Amino acid sequence: MMNVNEFYVRNTDSDSPMRIRDGFVYVRKHKDLREVTIVISFMAMFGLNFQITTALMAKEVFHRGAASFGLLGTCIAVGSLSGSILATHREKAPGSLRVMKGAFLFGLASMLAAVMPTYSTFALVLPLCGALAITTTIAANTTMQLGADPQMRGRVMGIYVLVLIGSAPIGSPLVGWLAEAVGTRFTIAFGGAVTCLAALIVMIISRRSDAPDSK
Are 90 and 146 in contact (CB under 8 A)? Predict the structure, then answer.
């Protein structure tokens, strides 16, 4: 059950209004929030371009029509629905490590999809991509929500939504150009590799920064 008393924030300081820049400073100073923002930005920019890549795979690679393209979207939706249901059964707060692991696995799944030889095998991998995409973004959303102070939560979530949705206009033209220049399969694999690399680098840096604290 929800506690409605938690819907209201008390003890706010109205004499010190916060600016939009304060939200970026807040995210930069908090390790979990900073890590999630970086990983999700790369994942959204290079990995979450299903509307482009599935259309290109259906038409250019497998030479299928609109119905087959629609079926690929259904496969992603099935995975996303399954992933969202699975995410509701997790009781422990996710944290940035789960986001990084989820993004890494999503990148691997994307690279696996890129090398599938037939339409059927490609369609079979897409539910996995959809499930990993939704569970990772849900974990990121939860981490940002729970990791921010109540008076900063609105700004923090605004930055998260900006990164998640606003990265697409940057990544989509690049994805389209790559697909035209070097092929659709390479483009999907490239997006997965970039996502994996970003998650891995942030994970390594995070563990190194935590090492002195464990001594």
Answer: no
